[in-house]
Structures are given as C-alpha cells and as structure tokens.
Write a structure and sequence with these properties.
Blueprint: H1 2-7, H2 9-23, H3 30-37, E1 40-45, E2 50-52, E3 60-66, E4 69-74, E5 80-86, H4 95-100, E6 107-110, E7 114-120, H5 121-130, H6 132-148, H7 150-159, H8 162-172, H9 174-179, H10 182-189, H11 193-205
Helix pairs in contact: 5-6, 10-11
C-alpha cells in the first residue's frame, strides 16, 4: 500500500497530511513512516456515517485528512454527550476498545463529508514494537492528548461555571466553534441548547466577542 501512496496522486496529499500530523509530535525516519503508511487505507465517509458504532469491536483508528467527526456516548434514555471532536490532523478512534478488544463504549460519527486514512491497529502495534522513533511519537501523543488536554477539561466540567467553559471553548477551539451546530457544542459543554442560548445572549449583552 505504501507504493500506492507514492505513485497515486489521489493519495499523495493524504500521505503528506499523515506525515505533517505525526511530525507535530515527533520526527519519524523515512523507513518508519513507510511502515506506518503501509498500515493505512483511504476511507471516505458521508455526513452521518459512522467510523465506529457503539457496541462494535473496532480494529482501526484514523487520521482526519479533511472533515469533522464527533465522539459521543449516550445514556439509556438516548441522551447524547459529545466527548471530543476530531478535525483535520487529529486521530479519531475508540482507543480503550482497541487496546482491550472489547466492544466500544463510544460512537464516532462524521459531522461533515470526511476523507480519512484508516490505520489498522494491529499492524500499527507491530510497527510500534519494532521502532523507537514511533514509540516516541506514541509517548508524545499520549502526553499531549490524554494528560495535558484531557485532565484540565475533566476538571473544568466539575469546577467551572458553564459560561466559563463556553469562553474556554471559544478561546481554545475557534475553528470548531465556527463549524459546529450549537446543539453539538451544548452537548460537549454539558449544558442544554437552551442554556447555551442564554449564555450566548448574556455574553452579547456584556459586549464579549464570540469568535
């Protein structure tokens, strides 16, 4: 498959996007990047398609080349909570399910038409065991996304007022704020759409910018 990416112009941009996304965490040798690319397959999703369904047993994660997805959970009453959004350069996947081989407790849905590189998890893990630079990439990725970003958000949900969480979302994720319907933003912040509308109105009344 690596040869396909090298010779097929349709996929060259996806390969460059993968290299750039991984380089944001660690520099890989050409040999290691070729091994990673061999784990990848291009995948297109339409809006409303699922990359991972609740209760399925996933075998892959992905890179978002273009588009936007949400990772969400739902309660027995069908209420949904958006845990995280994945836009260009990010790596969606039900990682706990991939690591344990258990059914996924989250779903990942395309909110826009998406161009992805689906990455076979077992093949990636084999490459990970053999390549020190890929191991360093994994460490840096986990540090950035599971420690430095995830923990502050979890604390904010408990400690911050909803208006402060919305301000932080606008400040930290302006691209997402411009692309997401408000009901998805509300679900992510742990408030109802009505509550978010009141927060937005209060910010406007106070003269605070929303972008």
């Amino acid at each position: 498959m690596a040869d396909d990416f090298d010779t097929d112009g349709r996929h060259a941009a996806s390969a460059r996007a993968l290299r750039d996304a991984m380089r944001a965490y660690a520099e890989l040798s050409d040999e290691t990047f070729t091994a990673v690319l061999a784990c990848c397959r291009p995948l297109r999703l339409e809006r409303g398609d699922y990359f991972c369904r609740l209760g399925s047993t996933p075998t892959r994660f992905a890179l978002v080349v273009a588009g936007l997805l949400r990772c969400f959970v739902s309660d027995p009453e069908g209420n949904e909570y958006n845990k995280i959004f994945f836009d260009e350069g990010s790596f969606p996947g039900s990682m706990a399910a991939l690591l344990t081989g258990a059914p996924s407790t989250v779903a990942i849905e395309a909110l826009e038409p998406c161009e992805l590189l689906a990455i076979d998890f077992a093949a990636f893990r084999r490459a990970l065991r053999e390549r020190a630079d890929l191991q360093w990439f994994q460490i840096r990725y986990l540090e950035q996304n599971w420690l430095l970003r995830k923990e502050p958000r979890e604390f904010a949900l408990v400690q911050q007022e909803a208006a402060d969480r919305y301000r932080a979302f606008l400040r930290e994720s302006p691209r997402l704020a411009a692309r997401l319907p408000l009901f998805h933003v509300a679900s992510h912040l742990g408030v109802t759409p009505t509550q978010l509308s009141r927060i937005r109105r209060a910010l406007r009344d106070d003269g605070e910018p929303e972008s």
